[in-house]
């Protein structure tokens, strides 16, 4: 009974990690599509999204069943509650990748990004994928130390985002308002993606330690 | 025992409704601050936010205790799970109001909004507050019919957001890129606020009916 329950909790963790990998891959592909104005890749990200939606529903059902089946306590209960909360972050990560792909499709065959800011988005995409991969790994391993490292790595995204805004706000911006609107939204999508990946890491720290990182004296 | 448990679940619902009212009031005040470039009101929204953070933690603890204390089933379990999920939406609503207040503060004593788009934001603010009030009410009453009405009312926000983007993308936009960036972000914040209020309504429908609205044949 106990072993079967532990196995079901591990199965939920695996499904959450799979959701996270799908979202991270979607963001990687969406970034590629954005940088190269590649319509087929953008379309792939958009059509693949349904699968993530299905997996989301399945994760929610699994978590609910774990609560209904048996009354978990302590660490088990924290795992399930953190799982219910993480599903939401993973769902948002997938949707943010979808938004990036949709902007690429809307502007095609034109480029959504002026050349001037492409390097920022290449780097924001790299950081997003890195954080997504890290979040998937901590969901599987429950490695709190690795989760803590991810929290620190989010600063890289914040810095990139700030620099991008400086470029946009510069009087020298010569790509017009429509491009500025796209770049503003895209920047926000990458920043939020990173926030959610970090939030997943925070939840893993909580389920392992019983405390959120801000409660821990550094 | 049973009566005491039901009372604790009702207490969680009341706390969630309080969180929702605080977020809705914050968005109302943030909109007023934005439209009038009123720094004291913006500062109030920013300093009041801590209270919402405290209430969030308290809601999470209450929900967790409800699961740990007793093994709820069926409707009770759905109430607690929906509560755990709703806390996240309510937290986001509060943060989005905070973002609006922070843009107002950053631009002060200048106006963040060109006169041309003020009417859009007055109306988006009105819709956001209306949806927020509605969400608070359905959190308290668990009225699924009222929750369904809120789902339909979100269209008003989507329409406003689309119109706003048309204004921004128009070649006649003459307020420069910096204002366009602010307006883009602000529009996104109001749209997301409405999305979260609607998501809260969806969760109430789920906890009452056991099914999410999209599963129900219209």
TrEMBL record, chains A, B:
GO cellular component: cytoplasm
Entry-linked InterPro entries: PhoU, PhoU-like_sf, PhoU_dom
Alphabetical keyword list: Cytoplasm, Phosphate transport, Transport
GO biological processes: intracellular phosphate ion homeostasis; negative regulation of phosphate metabolic process; phosphate ion transport
Keyword tRNA processing: no
Record localization: Cytoplasm
Subunit structure: Homodimer.
Entry function: Plays a role in the regulation of phosphate uptake.
Protein name as it appears in the record: Phosphate-specific transport system accessory protein PhoU
Originating species: Hoyosella altamirensis
Taxonomy of the source species: Bacteria, Bacillati, Actinomycetota, Actinomycetes, Mycobacteriales
């Amino acid at each position: 009974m106990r072993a079967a329950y532990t196995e079901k909790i591990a199965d939920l963790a695996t499904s959450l990690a799979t959701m996270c990998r799908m979202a991270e891959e979607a963001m990687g592909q969406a970034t590629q599509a954005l940088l190269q104005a590649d319509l087929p890749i953008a379309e792939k990200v958009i059509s693949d999204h349904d699968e993530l939606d299905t997996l989301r529903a399945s994760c929610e059902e699994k978590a609910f069943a774990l609560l209904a089946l048996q009354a978990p306590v302590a660490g088990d209960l924290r795992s399930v509650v953190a799982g219910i909360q993480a599903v939401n972050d993973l769902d948002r990560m997938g949707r943010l990748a979808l938004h990036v792909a949709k902007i690429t499709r809307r502007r095609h065959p034109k480029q959504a990004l002026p050349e001037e800011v492409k390097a920022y988005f290449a780097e924001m995409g790299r950081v997003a994928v890195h954080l997504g991969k890290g979040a998937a790994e901590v969901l599987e391993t429950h490695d709190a130390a690795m989760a803590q490292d991810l929290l620190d790595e989010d600063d890289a995204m914040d810095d990139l985002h700030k620099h991008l805004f400086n470029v946009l706000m510069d009087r020298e911006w010569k790509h017009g308002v429509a491009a500025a609107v796209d770049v503003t939204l895209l920047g926000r999508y990458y920043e939020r993606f990173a926030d959610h990946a970090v939030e997943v890491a925070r939840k893993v720290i909580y389920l392992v330690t019983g405390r959120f990182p801000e409660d821990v004296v550094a």
